[in-house]
Amino acid sequence: MLIDNLRGNYRFLSGIAPYSCGVTAMPGHEIVRVAFRRPEPYRAGFERIARYLEATGRPWQALCGIELRLPAPLSFEGFIVFNAEYRKLLAAWDLLIGDANPVARTNIAPAVAPPAEPALYAFSCTVPANDAPPSFVVAGAGDLYDQADLTGRAVVRPGKTSAHALREKAGVVIDTMHERLTGLEMDWPAVTAIDVYTIYPVHPVLFDTLFARIGDTAMHGIHWHFGHPPIDALIFEMDVRGVRREEWI
């Protein structure tokens, strides 16, 4: 369900306790993505976000997307514990709407140069913009048949890494991206960036699984991050976004 976040000037697609499934800016606003040249420990990173928002005259509630990096993938149990602490931080920022978490999130464990501790890689926020096209961020999703099932039962082809298994896993994730785009009232032509996260070859899934679905959006290419989803039982993750402005700080 798409829900209004009037304080943050965006709408969000309801998800689970740690994150929403995606966000889209309300009319008169756009989403800006801001990435760190050097990721910071994520709690200190939130302090940087606060300074950025205050310098641009935006309330903390304008924060609508978070991208984290982990030292290594977690077990399902470890992921749940991490999410509980992360949600407490969002609550301390007064970002929650009742029991709903409006902030989209991607959480990845880089296979090369991982951080020593959980780190903030990038964030997204809304800013006033009367002439901007629709902008949105779709939260990351891994190879789970049910993204809300964090018990291990929903893993697609668990333990399998063949090209056929990778296609099946990627197909489920791409279906999830499509469902979330539809839920945000968006579609593939509005996407400006596609991120793929895996340590396995992406070539088997590009043409018959991904490019066949996204049409002309393929002109923007695919950004392949050589890394792991945040849970050690998963091997393939994606997120997508459609934004006019991206910054590096």
Topology diagram in text:
Elements: E1 2-5, E2 10-13, E3 22-25, E4 29-41, H1 42-55, E5 63-69, H2 76-92, E6 104-110, E7 119-128, E8 136-142, H3 163-183, E9 193-198, H4 203-214, E10 223-228, E11 237-242, E12 245-248
Parallel strand pairs: 4-12, 5-6, 9-10
Antiparallel strand pairs: 1-2, 2-3, 3-8, 4-7, 5-7, 6-10, 8-11, 9-11
Q: How does this model look, in words?
A:
- This protein has 249 residues and is an alpha+beta fold.
- It has helices at residues 42-55, 76-92, 163-183, 203-214, and strands at residues 2-5, 10-13, 22-25, 29-41, 63-69, 104-110, 119-128, 136-142, 193-198, 223-228, 237-242, 245-248.
- The chain has a twelve-stranded mixed sheet with strand order 1-2-3-8-11-9-10-6-5-7-4-12, covered by helices on one side.
- β2 and β3 (22-25) form a beta hairpin.
- α3 (163-183) runs parallel beside α4 (203-214).
- The longest helix is centred in the C-terminal third of the chain and has 21 residues, at 163-183.
- The protein is globular.
- The two termini are 33 Å apart.
- The mean pLDDT is 95.
